Structures are given as C-alpha cells and as structure tokens.
Amino acid sequence: MDPTCDRIHQNPPPVSGEKRVVDEMDFFAEENCLKKTSRVDAIKKESTELDSELDTGLNLHMANTSSDKSMVDDETLPNMEKKRTTNKLIVLKDELERMNTENQRLRDMLNEVNNKYCALQMHFVTLMERQQNRKPRTAEENEMIDRTTEEKKDGGIVFPRQFLNLGQAAIANKEELSQSSSEGRTQNGFRSPQNNVELVSVTFKSGQEAESPDLANQGWVPNKVPKFDTSKDYDQATDATMRKARVSVRARSEATMISDGCQWRKYGQKMAKGNPCPRAYYRCTMAVGCPVRKQVQRCAEDRTILITTYEGYHNHPLPPPAMTMASTTSAAASMLLSGSMPSADGLMNSNVLARTILPCSPNLATISASAPFPTITLDLTNTPNPSQLQRPQGQFHVPFPNPPHSFPSDGPQVFGQALYNQSKFSGLQSSHQDMMNAATAAIAADPNFSAALVAAITSIIGANGHPNNHGNNNSSTRSSSDNNVGKSNFVGN
DNA sequence: CGCGTTTGACCGGCGC
DNA sequence: GCGCCGGTCAAACGCG
Ligand SMILES: [Zn+2]
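Above: inputs. Below: predicted complex with zinc ion.
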C-alpha cells in the first residue's frame, strides 16, 4: 500500500522492494556456510528476484527490461534492434523458466534440509528437557515432571508427542506438501510473498481459560458454553498457571493476513481501542474441533507490520511447513522458558547473553512479564521496531536463530505446549540457564541453521510467491475489511 | 445452493 | 452498578 516508512528510511526507493528482501537474505547469507546453500542462495536470490517477488521484484525487472527496449526503439527503430531485443526477451523468459525449475528443485532440497533441521531441533529440545528433568526440584515440581514423563510414555502429553508427529509428518508429508496440498478450498499456501516474519511472541494466559493444556484431544467447544464447564477442570486445575499459550507473530506484510499453512475462518472483527486498524478474529478450520484461534491486527504505527496472535493448540496434525515452524518455534520457546519465568536473575542473564549474541543473529526472543501474562517474544530480525523499543523493562531478549519460513502460525501447538510444560517448572532452573543460553548461543552462532532456514524461507517465499492470498486470506484480502473497520469501529464499541 | 465473510448484537470481565 | 472493552455469536450477505 503506502510506502512503509521504515522501508523507505532504510532503503532507497527505486530498488527498495527487491533490495529489501535481498537485504534480509543477505544478512543470513553472509553467515551462511552451508556448502550448497551458499551457492544455492545466490541462485535463489536471482530466482526470487525474477519470479517471486510479485510486484516488487518482478515488476522492477520487467520494468527495466522494457525500459531498455523502449529506449532502443526510440532511438533506432531498425528491425534488427527490435528483433534483438525480442530475442533478448525470449532468452530472458527462458532463463526465468529455468530459474523456476531450479527453484523448484532447490525448494525440495530445502525441504529436506528443513526436515533435518527440524529433527535436530527436536532432538535438542528433548535433550534440554531431559536435562531439566534431572534437576532437583520441589515436590510439586517433581510431581509435575513425573506426570509429564508419564504422559509422554502414554503419548498423552502433547509436547513430546507433537514432536514425534512433527518428525513423522514432516517426512511423510514432505512430498505431499511440495506437490499438492490436497486440502480443499481455503488452505493457505505457505507462500506469502511479502511476509517477513520479524518476531514472535508468546503470551501465557493464566486463568481457567478454556483450552485444556492437553488440548490435543479436546475439541474446542464453541458457543457460549462456559468454557469452564467443558474444559479441563480436573487435575489440570492444579497448575492453574497457564492453560493457554499465545503466540504472536509480528510480520511485515502488506497482505491482510499471513499465510501459515492452516485454514482459517473469520468469525469476527473489531476495533482495538488504541489502534485505528481493526482486529480480525479467525478460527482454525483444519479440523472440526480445532480450538486454535488467531487474531490479526496491523500495527498502529507501522501498518506494514502485521501482528498475528495465535491461541490454543491444534488438535490435528499440522502441515509440514507449519510443523517445521512449530518445532522451531517451540524449540526457541523451550529455550526461553527454561530460563524465563524464573527470577529476574534469569532474565538478566538472558538479556546479557542475548545482547552479546545479538550481532550474530537478528532474531530475538523476548519474554515480557507484563501484567496478566508474561510474554515471550522471539525477534527474528533486528528490525528496530517501535513496539520493541517501547517494550517495558520486565523483558529480556534471547536470540532466536530460526527465522520461520512462513509463519509460526501453528507455533502454539508445539510451541505453546512446550511453553506450557516448561513453564511449570518456572522459577527453578537458574543453572540450566547457562546451559540453555549456551545452547542457544551455539545455535544462534551456527550459521548453518540460519542458512538453512533462510534458504527455506527464500525458497518458499520465492517459489510460491504470488500476490494472491490463499484461503482465508481472501476473505480479509478483500478490501472490505477496511470498510468494515470503519463501520465496525463505531458499532463495535 | 453451499460456504465463508460481514457486521451488529451480545456477553463476560474489569475498572471506576 | 455502570460503562468500557475485548471477544464471540449468528443472521444476513455475497461469491462461486
Ligand atoms: Zn488447527
């Protein structure tokens, strides 16, 4: 839409669009050590510029070519010249096509890499968790842990289970994914051209909210049925701490909604008080009873920033990309959590560490202990977000090495779960802290991770990047949303 | 005609 | 108790 202030400031207008994207890529690319990746990256960049970047890249290129041509035409009209240019064009087209195929191939590769990465991360998280369990804890904590462990055995607990699913599914669905997302209608592709995720934040909602943490099995009961009734009530009550995790993703996107691989149905829209932009409410429709909901809202200051907040856990398997994201996110979350909830000490440590590492990784994870529920924020880019800057003191940052490729949309599932599980122990692990931090740092510092992810992002964004939004996006895509905004504003409040 | 979105109404929580 | 507010419901609407 309107030029984003940020962008403009940061980049020169003309090439801005493409430059911007490339810039981000470059950031990682520099760290990039993956043998093929580096090369791949270069190619990818090209292809991205050529085909994907909807308006920006593509148009720009086209514009250039055409302009060249026109110039020639104007000055010398000889047919030869014309032919030449035409040929050139054809050649370019061929090239473009080639790039596309190449891109496709690369995407496959990346998928693979991603899966591997995912697996690795799962492993990592598992290890961490194990480590954690080893720690001495209070009786209560022990109890919880025990329970958790048991549940794991049963497969009852979602956290571990999800990971398993992730792994399996990731592998199993890989092909499906790349080929056809058989999902019917409104499945969001995981392509969202201009979406660059910048940060993820998770919020725990305390209180007896509805979703049982176990979520997996429990369908979300719509209607006004008191959530309390349906819900968890039982035991879970013990850990009244958090029933619900919130993951919010800050993404730069001009689209009305980021695509995350899930199907969403809009069920409401309202004006938030401090924000001129409306907030849209969506519900996951991938599965019948899926309790996951999300809110999409644009940042007041910078409207190019889209804030998507996910709540609840999916009661169904996630599409590969989403899963990858989820695991990734969850890993980060677990890292955060491991050191988070705890005292300020932990916070401080993390903070320091984060700052130290910051230069290496543009991504940040933040936890804020603000009011009702603490918020964890994973900052994936170093973008100077006003909101971020404004952030109150009670937060700390941790570098988050994994830029989600499309969106952590489904993060809540794994992510949330992880948070939930770990949050139980909150307060104890100061020592883990170190370990966690170390691990985090290690990962963050490891260019391979970043590279792989960047590659993934690039491929996904680039390959599929076309303007139209899929599924739900449509709904919101319609300008109507804006209109509604106005109306609903008044009405709503 | 089915389905998803739109949008005003409704509801529960919260602060005054 | 009242009003604000975030969130959800559901009838109406529009699209394919
Ligand atoms: Zn779902």
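The beta strands of chain A are 196-205, 244-252, 264-271, 278-284, 293-298, 305-311, 364-368, 375-379, 395-399.
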